[in-house]
């Protein structure tokens, strides 16, 4: 994206789009803000036109996403450890790197406008430092820098050396690369990490019985019969979305809801439960499918605010066609009679490492310590779901993560400890989807680089026998 700074000259005003991007970096760093949530308000406050808004969006999102690569390069250009560089200056330097190395902004424009930004927002001393460092960065292109700071090891090199290289090349924390390497199919890691750096296009879902796919602008999704990939523009302006008959939903998430609904269940099929429903994307699709069959969905969500979002996703009514209610409750102890549900979805809270392409800052926010507590909760939620479901009913366990500890390992340990629970092949419930074998037999794993979806994991369990 080539875009010169507004006005060259010795005392230039700071460029509004670059200043907006810097403000987004500051909010994400100091207030734990989410890039995608703060961008619209920062852009609006700065009064940017469409072109400048697109520039600020790419500059902020891309810089945050690629900060691991840029920090490795900056470390090679600065003669003290990066941790001793003032964080406000580091933000400016990272923005400069993104313009120079990934946005094709001409070097003189990238450097002079970023130096102006440093002078205006940090101080005169910072401007000189930024100027010197960015001139150094501009000496070579991104590939040359990666080769210099994280050379690709020979094919005989160690696993550690390979992962070190990929961590810098694709700007992922090293511990995340380690877990994704253990999860990804052979030789896929490079493509998977690259896919995490490509922001996905917006995908819409036409909720069955409420909207038709033909009403939605865009290209039909390859696997979900209800999905459309939007060509561009604001999804909120699509009438069916504004009216709540359609929604924004990744195709992988659509496939999770569709797989639960497609699982064969003999006998009554009246009560479906979504045990971790917030913010309600899958609940809305499930409720629409349930309504078509005379069944009803009960949505359970632990956090009140998110339960409110589920209500909104379900059309704002506490009950109605396809909806039995929305309950704010802990899914490990839900107010639902044991053995009363015919189908249960456990879309478990997880690390979200399968949806990194969606949230630029997400990879830097998680820590390895998160995993253990999540796994314990995932096991308890799955055990709870198996108590709620009647004999012959099904539980679909899903995560938006491919990490084995929270996918196959949770399922395997549950199968070892639960009485009268069997696993069934979930892959036939994903028509047209290939190359999606999960980490344990009969499970499925979707991938951004293979299927164009988030990395959703799916396992289908059936309760057998009588009541326990
Ligand atoms: C992965 S998200 C679910 C996404 C949702 N199914 C959708 O498609 O919109 C997991 C949700 O589980 C909720 N949650 C976390 N712990 C829970 C618990 N113990 N019981 C019920 N919900 C819980 C989180 O607040 C979060 O909203």
Could you name the key traits of this structure?
468 residues, alpha/beta, N-utilizing Substance Protein B Homolog, Chain A, 4 domains, eight-stranded mixed beta sheet, four-stranded antiparallel beta sheet, 12 strands, binds S-adenosylmethionine, MeTrfase_RsmB-F_NOP2_cat, rRNA cytosine-C5-methyltransferase, RNA-binding
What does this structure look like?
This protein has 468 residues and is an alpha/beta fold. The chain has 4 domains: 127 residues, NusB-like (N-utilizing Substance Protein B Homolog, Chain A, Orthogonal Bundle); 46 residues, no CATH class; 46 residues, no CATH class; 213 residues, 3-Layer(aba) Sandwich (Rossmann fold). The protein is built from 19 helices and 12 strands. Strands 5, 6, 7, 8, 9, 10, 11 and 12 form an 8-stranded mixed sheet that branches. A 4-stranded antiparallel sheet has the order 2-3-1-4. Helix 6 runs antiparallel to helix 7. The longest helix is centred in the last third of the chain and has 21 residues. 48% of the residues are buried. The chain binds S-adenosylmethionine. S-adenosylmethionine binds next to helix 14 and strand 6. The site of S-adenosylmethionine (SAM) has 18 residues, from helix 14 and strand 6. InterPro entries: MeTrfase_RsmB-F_NOP2_cat, MeTrfase_RsmB-F_NOP2_dom, NusB-like_sf, NusB_RsmB_TIM44, RCMT, SAM-dependent_MTases_sf. Pfam families: Methyltr_RsmB-F, NusB.
Count up the domains: 4
Shape: globular
Q: Mind telling me the CATH superfamily name of the largest domain?
A: Vaccinia Virus protein VP39
Strand content: 5-15%
Named once each, the bound ligands are: S-adenosylmethionine
Structural class: alpha/beta
User: Unreliable stretches, pLDDT < 50, 5 or more residues?
Assistant: none
Helical amount: 40-55%
| Overall pLDDT metric | 95
CATH topology of the largest domain: Rossmann fold
* DSSP E strands, number: 12
Q: Which CATH top level class of the largest domain fits?
A: Alpha Beta
Pfam family, one: NusB
InterPro entries: MeTrfase_RsmB-F_NOP2_cat, MeTrfase_RsmB-F_NOP2_dom, NusB-like_sf, NusB_RsmB_TIM44, RCMT, SAM-dependent_MTases_sf
Function: May act as RNA methyltransferase.
Family: Belongs to the class I-like SAM-binding methyltransferase superfamily. RsmB/NOP family.
């Amino acid at each position: 994206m080539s875009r010169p700074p507004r006005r060259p000259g010795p005392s230039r005003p700071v460029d509004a789009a670059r200043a907006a991007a810097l403000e987004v970096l500051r909010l994400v760093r100091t207030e734990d803000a989410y890039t995608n949530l703060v961008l619209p308000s920062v852009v609006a406050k700065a009064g940017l036109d469409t072109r400048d808004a697109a520039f600020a969006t790419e500059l902020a999102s891309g810089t945050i996403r690629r900060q691991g690569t840029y920090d490795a390069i900056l470390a090679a250009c600065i003669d003290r450890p990066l941790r001793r560089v003032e964080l406000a200056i580091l933000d400016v330097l990272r923005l400069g790197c993104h313009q120079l190395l990934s946005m094709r902004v001409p070097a003189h424009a990238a450097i002079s406008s970023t130096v102006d930004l440093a002078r205006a927002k940090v101080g005169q001393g910072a401007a000189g430092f930024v100027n010197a460092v960015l001139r150094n960065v501009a000496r070579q292109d991104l590939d040359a820098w990666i080769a210099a700071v994280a050379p690709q090891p020979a094919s005989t090199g160690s696993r550690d050396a390979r992962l070190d290289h990929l961590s810098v090349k694709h700007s992922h924390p090293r511990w995340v690369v380690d877990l994704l390497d253990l999860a990804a199919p052979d030789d896929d890691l490079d493509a998977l990490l690259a896919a995490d750096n490509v922001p996905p296009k917006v995908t819409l879902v036409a909720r069955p019985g409420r909207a038709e796919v033909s009403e939605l602008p865009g290209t039909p999704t390859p696997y979900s019969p209800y999905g459309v990939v939007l060509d561009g523009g604001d999804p909120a302006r699509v009438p069916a979305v504004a009216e709540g008959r359609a929604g924004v939903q990744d195709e992988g998430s659509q496939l999770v809801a569709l797989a639960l609904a497609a699982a064969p269940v003999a006998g009554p099929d009246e009560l479906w439960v979504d045990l971790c429903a917030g913010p309600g994307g899958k609940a809305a699709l499930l409720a629409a499918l349930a309504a078509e069959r005379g069944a009803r969905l009960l949505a359970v969500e632990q956090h009140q605010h998110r339960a409110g979002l589920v209500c909104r996703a379900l059309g704002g009514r506490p009950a109605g066609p396809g909806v039995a209610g929305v309950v704010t409750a802990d899914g490990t102890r839900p107010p639902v009679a044991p053995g009363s549900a015919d189908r249960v979805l456990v879309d478990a809270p997880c690390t979200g490492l399968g949806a990194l392409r969606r949230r630029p800052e997400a990879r830097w926010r998680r820590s390895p310590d998160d995993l253990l507590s999540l796994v314990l909760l995932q096991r308890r939620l799955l055990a709870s779901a198996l108590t709620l479901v009647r004999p012959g009913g099904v539980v679909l366990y899903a995560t938006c993560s491919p990490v084995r500890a929270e996918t196959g390992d949770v399922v395997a340990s549950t199968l070892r400890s639960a009485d009268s629970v069997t696993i069934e092949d979930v892959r036939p419930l994903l028509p047209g989807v290939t190359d999606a074998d999960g980490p344990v037999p009969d499970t499925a794993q979707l991938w951004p680089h293979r299927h164009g979806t988030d990395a959703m994991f799916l396992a289908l369990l059936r309760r057998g026998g009588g009541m326990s």
